[in-house]
Write a structure and sequence with these properties.
Shape: globular
Number of strands: 22
CATH superfamily of the largest domain: D-Amino Acid Oxidase, subunit A, domain 2
CATH architecture of the largest domain: 2-Layer Sandwich
Strand content: 25-35%
Length: 534
Amino acid sequence: MKLRHGMTFCSSLQTQPGAESGDTQNVDVVLIGGGTMSATLGTLLQSLQPDWTIHLYERLDKAAEESSNVWNNAGTGHSAFAEMNYTSPQPDGSVDIQRAVKITEQFEVSRQFWASQVREGVLANPRSFINTVPHLSFVWSGERVSFLKTRFEAMRQNPLYAGMEYSEDPQKIAEWIPLVMTGRDTSEPVAATRMPIGTEVNFGEITRQMMNALARRDNFHLSVNTQVQDLERNVDGTWKVTVANTSDGGNERTVNARFVFIGAGGAALRLLQKSGIPEARQYGGFPVGGQFLFTTNPEVVAKHDAKVYGLAPAGSPPMSVPHIDKRILDGTPAIMFGPFATFSSKFLKNGSWTDLMRSITPNNLWPMTKVGINNMDLVRYLISQLRMSESGQFKELQHYYPQANREDWKLWTAGQRVQTIKDIEGKGGTLQFGTELVSGAEGSIAALLGASPGASTAPSIMLTLLEKVFPEQVASDEWQAKLKAMIPSYGKALADNPQLLYDVRAMSRELLELSEPDLTTTPASTSEPEISGS
């Protein structure tokens, strides 16, 4: 079998699991980073090709401690039900939902993949990592109400959004989200959409369970407290990966790998640059952190069973969209509100203050500078966020919880994200919102850059990676059968196959033990949306 552009895979290099050549181990795959992406790719590869040897290296003392940690992300199963930044207004007054449809399709793949892992015994106790929490979009003021109604009208035509409700009636909205509506000025126009099959996801728990299952496999080896120091191309097309144990004085060792995946979150950019592949030259990154206000007061938490998304300020990055969410933090019910942008030159929460400076190269310096010049709205937004006081943050919370008691809320610093900057020919440095796969021309190395929707769509992203770097294997009857067993909709658009959509939602609902309503026989609503005062 071959990698893209003809490099033979799993041939003379591989002998036995962990085979050594002198002081260097020879393996098929190296995964860098112990987060959701690497765990997902490792699980896929162990299912598809169990004879391949895989080594995973994590810098910290355990997996899922950076962005995958339940406290370091918003826990939203990003399915574009409520996130209005995934739908864009057009000059003619319509709303483009194409990006939302793509993300919804991707999250349905995630549901199917996780459900299949429950069936296979890789994941257990689904309520520990996924729970039904309705997703709502909420706006106020006439212009925003008009946008949300137009968005709803566009989405209700698509089977993916069957069961979505819309209302401009304050009393109806108060039934959905009493915490948000109680104490609000009812003379101001408001509107909301509600999707009852939204989810709250603990990506850290998913990652830990998948890692534990992988660790039981003979051909998989997990090394924690291990930092990747360098990536160097061998003359035979393989990669020499130099790693150091951070717990024993930094003793180094090397491993040769046919394929390397860099899934190290914010650290992925610097490691990609170390590989020296030409494709890395056009990328830079700017770190943006986030803080959340949270409460675990049972009386407050009991009033809110939803994830409620508002509209982001103009020019702000997607991760800045304000939302007030029901959370289940490793079993503890809570409410989180945010995010508030922070700045640190670190690319990881547990990173180095020199991360940003070390990522700047002659190739990306001007594109990064140009992004700052061309995105003054973003610059002003970040400055305003950094200048915001604690009282200012609490006032922002009161827009979504008018009767909030300041004593109930604490501030938490979540994970770091690196906003990807890409040098595009003819445009120069451009901010890339979302995630981006970068791979070498021959397909022997790949990295994932960016943030939202991130872990929510990890299975779909990793499937795209497999198609790019292992095209021959993916096209084989063996892999096709296994992929379709894990993901029944693989290769099909659910928006164009309503019956398949209903079937896979029913399947994943049952295996994941979700308490969502059964919408499998409900066509997209054709009734008029509920209007306040009607």
